[in-house]
Amino acid sequence: MALPDIVIDLPDEAATTRLAEDVALALRSGDVVTLSGDLGAGKTTFARALLRALANDPDLEVPSPTFTLVQLYGEGRLPVAHFDLYRLSAPEELDETGFDEALEAGAVLVEWPERALSRMPGERLDLAFAISGAGRSVRVSGEGPLADRFTRSRVIRAFLDEAGWNDAARRFLQGDASTRAYERVAVSGRRAVLMDWPPPALKPVPKERRFIYRAEDVRPFLAADTALREAGFSAPEIHATDLSAGLLLMEDLGAEGVVSDGTPIPERYHAAVAVLAALHSKPRPRDLPLPDGTVHRLPVLGIEALTAEAEMLLDWYVPHVTGKPAGESARAAFLAIWRPLLEKVADDEQSWALLDYHSPNLIWLPDREGMKQVGLLDFQDMHLGPTAYDVASLAQDARVTVPSGLERDLIARYIALRQAGPGAFQAVSFAESYAILAAQRATRILGIFARLADRDGKPGYLKHMPRLRDYLARTLQHPVLSGLSVWYEEQNLP
Question: pLDDT at residue 203 above 50?
Answer without folding.
Answer: no
